[in-house]
């Protein structure tokens, strides 16, 4: 499902894994929306996500999360 967002961007709900997560993805953790500001590769396909709030979340290669990704229209 995609929704229009002011400014010509498109917001889409997507399933992400450690292999597909990107900076800027918004993930809901504990009822709070958190935007990924940086990623760190860990052994065995895991990644550590740094959120704008300063919080960290480590996900392994099999973790699946729902996120909102903003896509700019051309």
Work out the number of β strands.
Answer: 7
**Straight-line N-to-C gap:** 19 Å
* Main β sheet profile: 7 strands, antiparallel
| CA-atom Rg in angstroms | 13 Å
Q: How would you classify the helix and strand content by structural class?
A: mainly beta
Kindly report the average pLDDT value. 87
Strand content: over 45%
* Helical stretch tally: 0
- Uncertain spans, ≥5 residues at pLDDT below 50? none
Q: Strands of the biggest beta sheet: in what spatial order?
A: 1-2-7-3-4-5-6
Shape summary: globular
How much helicity do the residues have? under 10%
Architecture overview:
This protein is mostly beta strands and 74 residues long. Helices cover 0% and strands 58% of the residues. It has no helices and seven strands. The protein has strands at residues 2-5, 9-16, 26-29, 32-41, 47-51, 56-59, 65-72. The protein has a seven-stranded antiparallel beta sheet with strand order 1-2-7-3-4-5-6, with no helix packed on it. The mean pLDDT is 87.
Question: What is this entry, summarized?
Answer:
Helices cover 0% and strands 58% of the residues.
List keywords for this structure.
single chain; 74 residues; mainly beta; seven-stranded antiparallel beta sheet; 0% helix; globular
Write the layout of secondary structure elements.
Layout: E1 2-5, E2 9-16, E3 26-29, E4 32-41, E5 47-51, E6 56-59, E7 65-72
Antiparallel strand pairs: 1-2, 2-7, 3-4, 3-7, 4-5, 5-6
